[in-house]
UniProtKB/TrEMBL annotation:
Pfam families: Ion_trans_2. The chain crosses the membrane at residues 47-66, 105-123, 158-179, 224-245. GO terms for biological process: monoatomic ion transmembrane transport. Residues 9-18 have a biased composition (Polar residues). This is Two pore domain potassium channel family protein.
Length: 283
């Protein structure tokens, strides 16, 4: 007489979701180790991601100068795929996904991805892709190696330079998108924006308040744009000057109150009086 069937298949089926969950957990742990780790393998991965990000930024900056043909759109969607993959990986690596999604850098990256996936709908907002410079500058990939080197006092000046460069390219894209002179139209008095280089030249001349006047923006909107660019540009230049010439601050987290910025030769934390052990440049 045959024995009654046992239930190993059900047990195996019950273990499949558990194994699947363990697989997802293992993937998350791996991504966290790669994105936030300090091992040699993590450093190599982070340097690779940083290199790809710099290439993407170069593509964004050069986009207005490239011919809008099939090759351009192939590159555009390839870059969009890379950004989507990077965002998905960062979401899995995040300890709190909801908090990560609310971060300004994440929202900017999602919007940049939207401009690439829907170029016909969001064509006039494509100039905001230059904000990728700003989001990259707010990742630990850039600053962690610098903070561990003898050049760690350069962090504030470099951040100021990044903010200024981001502003220049965002404004250049805005001016080129909304103030480019239509082809075939009669040009008014004064030279108008005819190409991307003209827009960049106008932006730099306005930000530095040089004001040669050989290229101007027409109408009330153009004048208001010039005013805003001058005011914000002067503020960024003042910040850059302060970062270069003011006494150097070192980034070192106080073990008691978590204050980050201290004088380079500080022995005690100014906020709580905790004794600090800030490493020397040669350490």
């Amino acid at each position: 007489m045959d024995a009654e069937p046992t239930e190993p298949p059900e047990q195996s089926t019950a273990q499949e979701p558990q194994r699947s969950g363990e697989g997802r957990s293992g993937l998350r742990q791996t991504l966290r180790a790669l994105y936030h780790g300090r091992t040699a393998a993590a450093r190599r991965f982070q340097i690779s991601v940083l290199t790809i990000d710099l290439a993407i930024i170069a593509f964004f900056v050069a986009s207005p100068l490239l011919p809008q043909g099939p090759l351009f759109y192939w590159l555009d969607y390839s870059v969009a795929a890379l950004l989507a993959l990077d965002l998905a990986a960062r979401a899995l690596a995040a300890h709190d996904v909801a908090r990560w999604l609310r971060q300004p850098t994440t929202l900017v990256d999602v919007f940049i991805l939207a401009t690439m996936l829907a170029p016909l709908w969001l064509a006039n907002l494509g100039f905001l892709r230059a904000l990728r410079i700003w989001t990259l500058a707010h990742t630990d990939f850039v600053w962690t190696p610098l903070r561990r080197s003898k050049y760690r006092t350069w962090e504030d000046p470099v951040r100021a330079v990044v903010s200024l460069v981001t502003f220049l390219f965002v404004v250049t894209g805005f001016v080129y998108t909304f103030f480019k002179h239509p082809e075939g139209a009669a040009a008014p008095d004064g030279k108008v924006i005819e190409n991307y280089v003209d827009a960049l030249y106008f932006t730099v001349a306005t930000v530095t308040t040089t004001g040669f006047g050989d290229i101007t923006l027409q109408g009330t909107a153009g004048k208001l744009t010039s005013v805003v660019v001058m005011i914000v540009g002067i503020s960024l230049f003042v910040r850059l000057a302060q970062a270069i010439f003011r006494p150097s601050k070192v980034t070192y987290r106080c073990p008691k109150c978590a204050l980050l910025k201290h004088d380079y030769d500080a022995v005690h934390c100014k906020a709580c009086g905790e004794i600090l052990c800030i490493p020397d440049e040669d350490d």
